[in-house]
Design brief:
This protein is mainly alpha-helical and 130 residues long. It has one domain. Helix content is 83%, strand content 0%. Helix 1 runs antiparallel to helix 4, helix 1 runs antiparallel to helix 6 and helix 2 runs parallel beside helix 5. The longest helix has 29 residues.
Length: 130
């Protein structure tokens, strides 16, 4: 569940947004300011990472309070969560920077999401029936 969450927010939060601000000329205006390119990239990445962190805390609280789930708090899982989040955000930024339209970015993100979801379901089915 959390892996699908990380993938979805990382891809859908960056690729269409970046394609949209480039399509409407906002990116050119931002690059004309004293803001450096890496600062713009880091601002986009950290804003999505901040939102994902808040949503992760919310999902864990709901799981513990409402569903009475037990969560093993392991620092390595949180590190793995952030590595995966950074990778999918980077992939979203890459897709958003190479496509010319928002529709193309959305289609590519949906294709990646579909194949990732299908492979996750196959893995889970193998783990259940093995």
């Amino acid at each position: 569940m959390l892996t699908a969450f990380v993938m979805t927010n990382g891809l859908f939060g960056t690729a269409p947004a970046l394609a949209s601000i480039r399509k409407f000329g906002v990116l050119k205006r931002l690059l004309a300011t004293p803001l450096q390119k890496h600062e713009l990239f880091l601002g986009l990445v950290f804003s999505v990472m901040f939102i994902n962190t808040l949503l992760l805390i919310e999902m864990l609280l709901v799981a513990v309070i409402v569903f009475k789930a037990t969560v093993n708090y392991n620092i390595y899982l949180f590190i793995l969560f952030y590595i995966g989040m950074f990778m999918f955000i980077g992939l979203g930024v890459f897709i958003g920077s190479i496509v010319k339209s928002v529709e193309t970015a959305t289609v590519l993100v949906n294709m990646i999401g579909f194949f990732n979801d299908a492979s996750l379901r196959c893995f889970l089915a193998f783990r259940i029936y093995a």
